[in-house]
């Protein structure tokens, strides 16, 4: 994935037709996959995933999880933000700490700005969360969602 709003050009991608002219062949399954992926990217409404990270002590991990589930997520829903789709909290216990990854899904960058304001890259954690977390990334990252598979 690439960062939303990134102006840095990636490597030039050749089309399937250009590659086939050079003697490279592809299976029908690969061609269908690339065509489906390309169709997703041509949509005008590029979904954005906002990713915030932090960690805490093992002793505070359950309290932070409960705070997110019982206060932060319901507060987010109560804002009734246009373009907000869903939020997820991921947890990983490591030696000496518990890491958390918070994912929020928005219709587009405009919806992210409605949520976070003009300085939308700034991570947003309420004071109670800051008390429980040992480390917080000050900037949230925003990725364009370029492909989704749901079953």
Report the average pLDDT across residues: 83
Percent helix, as a range, is 25-40%
Radius of gyration: 19 Å
Number of strands: 5
| Helix-strand pattern | HHEHEEHHEE
Q: In whole angstroms, how far apart are the ends? A: 21 Å
Question: What can be said about the biggest beta sheet?
Answer: 5 strands, antiparallel
Q: How large a portion of the residues is in β-strands, by DSSP E?
A: 15-25%
* CATH fold naming of the largest domain: Alpha-Beta Plaits
Count of discrete alpha- or pi-helical segments spanning 4 or more residues: 5
CATH C-level class of the largest domain: Alpha Beta
Which regions are unreliable across 5 or more consecutive residues at pLDDT < 50? Answer: 6-10
Shape: globular
Number of domains: 2
Structural class given helices, strands, pairing?
alpha+beta
CATH architecture of the largest domain: 2-Layer Sandwich
Summarize this structure as a short list of keywords or feature phrases.
alpha+beta; five-stranded antiparallel sheet; single chain; Alpha-Beta Plaits
């Amino acid at each position: 994935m690439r960062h939303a709003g990134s102006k840095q050009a990636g490597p030039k991608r050749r089309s399937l037709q250009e590659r086939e002219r050079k003697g490279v062949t592809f299976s029908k399954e690969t061609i269908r996959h690339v065509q489906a992926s390309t169709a997703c990217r041509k949509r005008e409404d590029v979904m954005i995933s906002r990713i915030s990270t932090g960690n805490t002590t093992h002793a505070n991990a359950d309290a932070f999880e409960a705070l997110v589930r019982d206060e932060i997520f319901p507060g987010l829903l109560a804002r009734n933000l246009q373009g907000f789709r869903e939020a997820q909290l991921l947890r990983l216990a490591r030696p000496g700490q518990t890491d958390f990854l918070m994912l929020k899904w928005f219709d587009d960058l405009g919806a992210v700005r409605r949520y976070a304001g003009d300085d939308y890259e700034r991570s947003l954690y309420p004071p109670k969360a800051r008390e429980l977390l040992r480390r917080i990334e000050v900037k949230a990252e925003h990725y364009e969602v370029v492909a989704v598979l749901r079953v």
